[in-house]
Specification:
The structure is a single chain. This protein is mainly α and 468 residues long. The protein has a domain at 265-468. Helices cover 75% and strands 1% of the residues. Strands 1-2 form a two-stranded antiparallel ribbon.
Length: 468
Amino acid sequence: MITSLLLVLPELLLTGGAVFGLLLGSFLPRRRQWAVRALAALVCAAALAATVAGWHRTSTAFEGAYSVDVPLGATRVVVLVSVLLVLCLAGTDIHGHRRESEFVVLVLLGALGAVLLSGANDLLLLVAAYLLASVPLYALTAFGKDAPGTEAALKYYLLGALLGVTMLFGALLLFGTGGATAYPALREGLPGAPGAAVAVGVIALFAGLLFKAGAVPAHFWVPDVTEGARPPVAALVTTIPKIGAVVALYRIGTAVLAPTTLAWPLLVAIIAAATMTLGNLAAFFQDNVRRLLAYSTIGQVGYVLMAVAAATGSGLALPSLLLYLGAYAVTNLGAFAVVCAFPAARTLGDYTGLRRRHPWLALSLVIVLLGLVGTPPTAVFAGKLTVFTAALDAGFGWLVVLAVANTVASVFYYLRWIVPALRSGPWAGERPGRWAAAGALTAAPATILIGVLAGPVLTVLDGGPLPG
């Protein structure tokens, strides 16, 4: 038990940070609630250090129910860095709020759920992680207690509950046909089980994870939540849960479904094609910056799912998937950082004159938006290049062609935001929030740095030695 606890030290730190943060916030006056945020940042830093220290450790914890390996380590790093950025983005928004401590605790719990999703090696733990990655986000969506946030939270909750029950049904069906809930036992039991029952169980199980990822056909909540929730919450919801869900899909595909005769890679490829196409086409017609980013994130999930489809057909699939997730997280949070800096600027036209009044933030916005397109030398470019290569190796040439076409098409709706920001004219917006501006000025160079260092990063993600 002690060995298992040491293996999951980052998760224990997140759990302890959430519990202690809630207790600490109960005794602090409102003007000193910032101490809970400082505690959360310290916990994330300690968890990052623990993750790096145990990077090459490959094992299982709690009698095989939890996998500790490179995919989990990469997820920990991306999620923890994302939490630090989200806390930075929310600095001005929640400072002095009467529920500031509760906000931070919910963020830590949601992040913990995403990490547990990526490491789950048992269906029961997977379902529990799904709930932990969902319930705190429902509360965060309605955190503002206003009409748009309440409506978005209700839609989010109802769809999440429906697909959560569907996911539970799939887990029960796979348990009944495979005779176990542990992934290694299912890997042995499912190939001899009735094919139709296994197929239904897999589709139902995938439904919940696709909901967390925001992929078609479980994507309907994404634009409503992104527009209705507070900007820092929208940044969180469109980033952190997707990381854990996609890694969970990859793990199920390789650890459970690989020896079966199911054509699950083709199913994932079709979902990826529909997701990227719908996301990019819908983004063309958006004038609201948050809805534009919402459909953008749907399109990005389509690209990420290409690596899941290539999981059993290419050795590059896993490192490319992890690289893309890290690149997407930093770049997407950079775009939301600009949105958080100017919460009153809701439409594309509201950003007219940004270059003249705030040139560094305008430059950061241009970098992250071109980064989401996949412009070299940004991190998403490296991620797309490797994901496309993995999909091509796995025999999904048609999907690569469609992804390239979608990438070219996405340039135009990002330009609809870039052009007003660079246009000369009077700036009608407010002064930027200090913390959100700092987040934008950090994320923009970070996405370039990750892109430049993509080679060493891929080596580490493939099990190579850490730099230095």
